[in-house]
Write the structure tokens for this entry.
Amino acid sequence: MTAVTDRAADLLAGSPYRGYSYAYPHKTAYRPLVPPVSLADAWRGEPTGGLFLYIHVPFCEVRCGFCNLFAQARPRAEVVSDYLGAVARQADAVRAAIGPATYARFAVGGGTPTALDPGQLHRLFDVAERVMGRPVGAVPASAEASPGTADWDRLAVLRERGVTRLSIGVQSFTEAEVRAAGRPQHPAEVSGAVERARSLGFPTINLDLIYGLPGQTVASWLATVRAALRFQPEELFLYPLYVRPLTGLGKSPRAWDDLRLSCYRAARDLLADAGYAPVSMRLFRAKHAPADDAGPAYCVQDDGMVGLGCGARSYTRGLHWSDGYAVGQKEVAALITEYAGRSTDALGLARHGFALDGDEQRRRYVLLTLLQEPGLPLADYERRFGSDMFGDLPELVELAPLGLAEVAGGRLRLTPAGVERSDAVGPWLYSPTVRRRMGDHEWR
Ligand SMILES: C[S@@+](CC[C@H](N)C(=O)[O-])C[C@H]1O[C@@H](n2cnc3c(N)ncnc32)[C@H](O)[C@@H]1O
Ligand code: SF4
């Protein structure tokens, strides 16, 4: 992440691409918990009436040149099998620690869950159902897949076990662009994967696309967005590329920012014409998409997350934790091997995380709410925290005069200029502690 200053004016003058705030605090702000916290202590007294279960599959068939996710390419068969054994043991430890609980959402992500074979996928869903005490299909359930691994057999397992949302990583329909980004993938592979997903009847199909790739222009990017629209996906996730590609870009940082901003604006306008509503800077939802509030009540700001697997995060109100974070392939492999060798007792400990005090909890609520449609309800903030938001975080007052947000209908809501700068507004709201820790993080 680039350095962040405190001046609101820099939100307009500086780079719009400082960091993706999909979770707060970022994993690079986690530190060893000394002593480790038992899961029973972490979950004691926490609401468990609407939990999210997430399982991380840190394996892929290739390591894409741009990817900074926690994943290992082409693992040996016994690495995968040992890993799934550890996920099952961790599930036992978590179940014993939490006691009776109700799960409202399920997701399996990665990496690439469909890097597992059909038998391994069944094993994983068995574990999920043991933890939740209900079929996966009883709740909205999401799974990620890459086109190269989305064959009939694997997709059929996902659908049969109750997955309702399939997210396919497409990145670009221009073969030269994905290849230059270190991802060998033919457009026919993508079409085949989406068509198979459609005929298996997943209610929601999401396609991930990336802009700012080496060799990409606004015109070639729009051609990719149009190609995606031909499949009428229920959702589209448009990611600005982070991690400057080593080859091919040949542009200054400023020119790269300008290209990404132009790509974003052009796609946003095209999608508006095609009837897709923006939910955030990255997510666009079609009119024909099933309502996203279907299923048992779940609130991302309130409800806990149970993460299973190496690299998965878990959240309670006051503590976030996960295993160590790495990007380099040797370090990722070492963390996975260490995880797979742990006993059930060792898997019942949170060893690496971040304790959120009142200020961090308030910042988290603001970040998760303000960066999404329909913005932040001021009365809800006051009801939760018993204080005035502008009193707690006076810097928020500065957004409206800069044209980045407005107060309307009792909400603080980003304007279109604010939405396109979400990746600057988010990091600007990070606490000094989180910024310092992220800055001190040693990348491996
Ligand atoms: C877990 S992956 C999706 C599933 C699958 N592994 C695949 O690649 O097809 C999540 C998404 O994050 C996005 N992504 C990964 N690395 C990125 C980066 N450096 N910058 C922007 N987006 C990135 C990609 O769009 C990718 O599809
Ligand atoms: S983009 Fe997807 S397939 Fe490529 S390395 Fe990252 S997680 Fe794996």
